[in-house]
């Protein structure tokens, strides 16, 4: 075989191997996307003066200022405004188009886009300046909850802004007044010293903070009774079930120092919870970290659980008028109203400024009226101190 023949044979083998390597590389990750024609979108920006640019887009022109961390007065819209503006307007148009296609009534839509970032990183590069998380608060009139869910899925599939940015940071798309989440309560006994329990369980805070679908978690402890627990807010029932089936929960439940577990889930009663400032609406669900001052000033948590012996609609009609009285209770920061219609169980989660305010409530007329009501029974009333440090890690609404 001549040298030229060997060279040609090697070249042919190389041409065969290269496509095969590309196919194998695709097989290692997600399925290859179909080949489709691409359209290129473009805008041009020119620096007009210090900290100010003129943007040209398809014959339109507008002014963009730099951001305040770089020393700009930001009198005009800035790049972050444009990014969030794109993320806010894209769902409006996709929802509008999808609603028309699916024959879903859409009378009004308002979208607020939020992004969490560290301005210091923009100023001097000392920290990562990337946007860590986005939130879209979508306020709708017209669709039912199920119809709104369909529109949200259409948006997540069709918006190029969302599908691009979600690869870089999580984007929480919340339907205001519809997505109230699911409450999960856990409680258990521990057989080690208080210090050992706190040290062991606190080490898991980062793992809990990373749980998919978890909005926040409050860690609680009652040292006098060697009892501890938590109150969680999850985005939906699927997230709760995935969490309960996870290795993280299995590891906690199998811990030999923990026993006598109680686990309950509840739907949030929206109107009553909002009246008593319960941290379940989209504004209260922001994932902003706690500051050090907040962890030093945590209050006291009271869980009131009982069963009701009347139809759920009658129960709600009876307790709903009490929401305004709870809202005026001295020392009450917030209250979440939650129920499990399947088991006819109710849970009231009350967060007080301190133990004295909690005790004053328990001795007051409002608490007495509830605990003596003939349609309510099997009361379990538990007070807990809040574990500040791990609660801050899991975004607990303590401020």
Task: Describe this structure as you would to a colleague.
- This protein has 399 residues and is α+β, with helices and mostly antiparallel strands.
- It folds into 3 domains: 45-76, no CATH class; 78-175, K homology (KH) domain (GMP Synthetase, Chain A, domain 3), CATH 3.30.300.20; 182-393, Alpha-Beta Plaits, CATH 3.30.70.100.
- The protein is 37% helix and 29% strand.
- It contains 16 helices and 14 strands.
- It has helices at residues 3-28, 79-102, 119-124, 145-158, 160-165, 194-202, 205-209, 237-244, 247-253, 270-275, 292-295, 312-319, 323-327, 355-362, 365-371, 388-393, and strands at 44-49, 52-57, 60-65, 108-116, 133-141, 171-175, 182-190, 214-222, 227-234, 258-268, 300-308, 332-340, 345-352, 376-386.
- The chain has an 8-stranded antiparallel barrel with strand order 7-9-8-14-11-13-12-10. Strands 1-2-3 form a 3-stranded antiparallel sheet, with no helix packed on it. It has a 3-stranded mixed sheet with strand order 4-5-6, with helices on one face.
- A hairpin with a 4-residue loop joins strand 8 (214-222) and strand 9.
- Helix 2 (79-102) packs across helix 4.
- The longest helix has 26 residues, at 3-28.
- The radius of gyration is 27 Å and the shape is globular.
């Amino acid at each position: 075989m001549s040298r030229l023949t060997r060279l040609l044979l090697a070249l042919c083998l190389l041409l065969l191997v290269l496509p095969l390597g590309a196919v194998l590389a695709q097989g290692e990750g997600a399925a290859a996307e179909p080949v489709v024609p691409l359209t290129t979108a473009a805008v041009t920006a020119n620096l007009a003066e210090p900290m100010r640019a003129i943007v040209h887009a398809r014959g339109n022109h507008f002014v963009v200022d730099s951001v305040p961390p770089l020393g700009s007065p930001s009198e005009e819209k800035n790049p972050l405004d444009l990014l969030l503006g794109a993320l806010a307007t894209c769902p409006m148009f996709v929802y509008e188009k999808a609603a028309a296609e699916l024959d879903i009534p859409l009378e009004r839509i308002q979208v607020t886009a939020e992004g969490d970032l560290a301005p210091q990183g923009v100023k001097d590069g000392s920290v990562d300046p990337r946007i860590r998380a986005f939130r879209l608060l979508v306020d709708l009139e017209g669709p039912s909850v199920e119809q709104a869910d369909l529109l949200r899925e259409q948006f997540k599939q069709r918006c190029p802004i969302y599908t691009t940015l979600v690869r870089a940071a999580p984007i929480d798309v919340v339907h205001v007044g519809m997505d109230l989440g699911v409450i999960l309560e856990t409680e258990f006994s521990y057989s080690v010293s208080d210090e050992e329990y706190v040290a062991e369980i606190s080490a898991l805070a980062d793992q809990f903070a990373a749980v998919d679908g978890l909005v926040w978690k409050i860690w609680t402890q009652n040292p006098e009774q060697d009892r501890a627990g938590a109150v969680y807010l999850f985005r939906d029932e699927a997230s709760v079930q995935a969490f309960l089936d996870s290795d993280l929960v299995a590891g906690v439940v199998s811990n030999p120092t923990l026993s006598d577990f109680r686990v309950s889930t509840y739907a949030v009663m929206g109107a009553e919870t909002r009246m008593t400032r319960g941290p379940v609406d989209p504004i209260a669900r922001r994932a902003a970290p706690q500051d050090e001052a907040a962890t030093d000033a945590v209050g006291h948590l009271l869980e009131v659980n009982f069963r009701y012996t009347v139809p759920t609609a009658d129960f709600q009609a009876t307790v709903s008028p009490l929401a305004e009285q709870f809202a005026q209770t001295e020392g009450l920061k917030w209250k979440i109203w939650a129920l499990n219609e399947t088991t006819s169980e109710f849970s009231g989660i009350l967060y007080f400024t301190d133990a004295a305010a909690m005790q004053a409530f328990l001795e007051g007329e409002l608490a007495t009226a509830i605990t003596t009501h003939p349609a309510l029974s099997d009361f379990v009333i538990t007070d807990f101190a809040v574990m500040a440090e791990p609660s801050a890690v899991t975004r607990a609404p303590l401020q």
